[in-house]
Amino acid sequence: MNAASLMMGGVSALCAGGVGIMFLVAGVSKLREHDLFLGTLSSYRLLPAWSLEAVAWGLGVAEALVGLMLLSGVGQGVGGVVAAGLMVVFALAMGINVMRGRTDLSCGCTPGQKGETLSWSLVLRTLVCGVPALLPAVAGAAPSVSVQLEGVACGMALWVLWQALRVLPYMSLSDAAGERA
């Protein structure tokens, strides 16, 4: 295996880890907080009422399975394509509501956690997240098991760091002092 393919395999595994953990957490959250997600899905006003229950369960299961595919390396290419497709669908749903002026809605990304409200920057960020999701599908040959494990671990660590950086600016000094007491 040459250096270029080794590097591409590592980057592919890194992307699979980051996107995979994001989808696994989001999917499990949608299944655990089903009623909360159902309310968010309903508030988007894009689907007929009769379909909401099935779509809410279906999205949770699909996201969890995509996450598992990306993290395990089994069906990683398919998982990447489905993840990118879901990102496009989510961005369209958010974009339609932003165009309607309905920016006070929760993104619904991870029910049970403080979500972001809709904005064009969130729509763009969601679309941009589709790019690393596709990398495992277009990378070619799968990396070795050790490169896959290292890449996925690093991708998961990057996702955890991203989550921490999103939360830290919202903590006030009094919150931090109260936690130390």
Structure, explained:
Residues 11-134 form the Methylamine utilisation protein MauE domain. This protein has 181 residues and is mainly alpha-helical. It has one domain (3-169). Helix content is 75%, strand content 0%. It has seven helices and no strands. The protein has helices spanning 3-32, 34-43, 52-72, 76-99, 120-138, 145-167, 173-180.
Share of residues in helices: over 70%
Radius of gyration: 18 Å
What is the averaged pLDDT score? 84
Q: Count the DSSP helices.
A: 7
What string gives the helices and strands in order? Answer: HHHHHHH
What is the domain total for the residues?
1
Structural class category: mainly alpha
Low-confidence stretches: none
* Termini separation: 54 Å
Can you tell me the overall shape?
elongated
Strand tally: 0
What portion of residues belong to β-strands? under 5%
InterPro entries: Methylamine_util_MauE (IPR009908)
Main location: membrane
Subcellular location: Membrane
Pfam families: MauE
Structure described in brief:
The protein has 181 residues and is an all-alpha fold. 75% of the residues lie in helices and 0% in strands.
